[in-house]
């Protein structure tokens, strides 16, 4: 009797994995087929990855597209690059950001035992968490954006060369 739900659960997991694979492949192909120079597309992805690694969650896409607009990079690629911080990876990214920020600032983790509910104490507690998180997010964002630029540019150049070769052979 226990085999029924277990089998259905396995089927559902397999279907979910299949959807994830299709979505990732779609995003990959969408990125490869973007119009523009490889430098513009790779720059957009790097901007998206950088912003995705910062703790600005409700504004990730807006910030990435705005920065890409200002720097004249691919806005769509920036919006796609932000998805490095998807809901599955976000807790790990924030933990990494905080730990890196903590190392850089030398901050000790604040005590979350609330004994003082005054506004100045709550503001200080928020800053003790936010400052290392923002600093760590900036550093990890830069460390992830730089290789993502070069990797994306290389992939796009290879794809374009392969596509050009196919056209010439036809």
Number of strands: 0
- Structural class of the helices, strands and pairings? mainly alpha
What is the helix content?
Answer: over 70%
The Cα radius of gyration reads 21 Å
Give the integer mean of the pLDDT values: 85
Note the run of SSEs as H and E. HHHHHH
Characterization of this structure:
- By secondary structure, the chain is mainly alpha-helical.
- The chain has one domain (38-169).
- The chain contains six helices and no strands.
- The chain has helices at 3-32, 38-52, 60-71, 75-81, 90-105, 119-169.
- Helix 3 runs antiparallel to helix 4.
- The longest helix has 51 residues, at 119-169.
- It is globular, with a radius of gyration of 21 Å.
- The N and C termini lie far apart (58 Å).
- 27% of the residues are buried.
Compile the SSE list and pairings.
Layout (H helix, E strand, L loop, with lengths): L2 H30 L5 H15 L7 H12 L3 H7 L8 H16 L13 H51 L1
